[in-house]
Write a structure and sequence with these properties.
This protein is of the alpha/beta class and about 350 residues long. Helix content is about 40%, strand content about 15%.
Length: about 350
């Protein structure tokens, strides 16, 4: 097995826990790191000081490396008329729970692009690894992080995006297949998304260049990790596999939907947040089928409405309007502690490798 990426990241096992904003926690990241993988924090939904607290809490739990992930989407463009139409379309959904939509929507998450406070915090704290989703920050930020000795990872959903990452000299490319849960990492949401699968994309990127590739999307067990590495990936990134861990921050409704009943498949939806993301089918994703649905506001402005609707429904005991992100492998999820799950994944991986070698 090629070890260059693992050495650069300072880990011993080819497992990266995906940085799931709102789901992954310092306890989860530390447990994965302590088990030999790379734990991750998703800080795209918080500000610099909130991210600093998460980093320091993780450091209280592990002396090993972990990854801090940033969102690099283009800042949203406000459109009051479009937002008003969206809120009016959602009004009947709010009314079911005796609530009304917000009077106005706001950009609830700030992109790392241009966020000087977040950049300075990272330079102060110097986490071992920083990764990017939805694209890259500017060259100045990349050089500053690289100069601080931080390893850089970024996600790509097709070879064109990977070429941009290669030109930026990242240390590893996360090949995000269409099977993956959560938001598609496409750089330009208005561009055509070919929807490449994890294995096809992994192989394309491995063949295209010398930058280490991390396979991501639909990988839930050790056999999946072994298959990804057989295609040339140097590690696998797993998100949904860790969502049901007790260290995750998901609410009771999300947990029940994932492990308390048979999973009714997943779907790509832009209705919840304004950008396409894969999640469990629920009452919110069912709104995609409404022919009267207007175009959603820009991400993450639309997410402001989505979170308000979820809060109104949840207050009445209805969890079906949550952002229950999950990949296509969701039926294979196991509710194990994160560190124990890494151990199980490695045993399965080693068994799969031995089985392949014995053929």
């Amino acid at each position: 097995m090629e070890q260059a990426l693992l050495t650069r990241l300072g880990i011993t096992k080819p497992i990266i826990q995906a940085p799931m904003a709102g789901v992954s926690t310092p306890a989860m990241a530390a447990a994965v790191t302590n088990a030999g993988g790379l734990g991750s924090l998703g800080v795209g939904a918080t500000d610099a000081e909130g991210a600093r607290r998460m980093i320091r809490e993780t450091r209280d739990l592990t002396a090993g490396p972990f990854n801090v992930n940033l969102f690099c989407h283009a800042p949203a463009t406000a459109d009051p008329l479009r937002e008003a139409r969206w809120l009016e379309w959602l009004r009947p959904q709010f009314a079911q729970f005796g609530a009304t939509p917000p009077a106005a929507l706001k950009e609830i998450y700030r992109s790392f692009v241009g966020d000087r406070a977040m950049l300075q915090m990272l330079l102060d704290e110097r986490p071992a690894v920083v990764s990017f989703h939805f694209g890259l920050p500017g060259a100045e930020a990349l050089e500053a992080l690289r100069g601080a000795g931080i390893a850089l990872l970024a996600s790509a959903t097709d070879p064109r995006e990977a070429q941009q990452l290669a030109a930026a000299r990242v240390d590893g490319i996360v090949a995000q297949g269409i099977e993956g849960g959560g938001h598609r990492g496409v750089f330009d949401p208005a561009a055509v998304d070919e929807g490449l699968g994890t294995f096809a994309l992994t192989r394309l990127l491995v063949r295209a260049g010398d930058i280490p590739v991390i396979a991501a999307g639909g990988i839930m067990d050790g056999a999946g990790i072994a298959a990804a590495l057989a295609l040339g990936a140097q590690a696998a990134q797993l998100g949904t596999a860790f969502v049901a861990c007790p260290e995750s921050a998901i609410d009771a409704g999300y947990r029940r939907a994932l492990i308390g009943q048979p999973v009714d498949g997943t779907v790509l939806t832009a209705t919840i947040s304004g950008r396409k993301a894969r999640g469990l089918r629920n009452r919110f994703t069912a709104l995609d089928d409404d022919p009267r649905r207007p175009p959603p506001p820009d991400y993450p402005i639309a997410y402001d409405a989505g979170k308000a609707l979820h809060a109104a429904a949840k207050a009445q005991g209805e969890f079906g309007y949550g952002a229950q992100w999950a990949g296509q492998g969701a039926p294979l999820v196991r509710a194990l502690p994160a560190g124990q799950l890494v151990e199980v994944l490695m045993r399965e991986f080693e068994e799969a490798v031995r089985a392949l070698a014995g053929r």
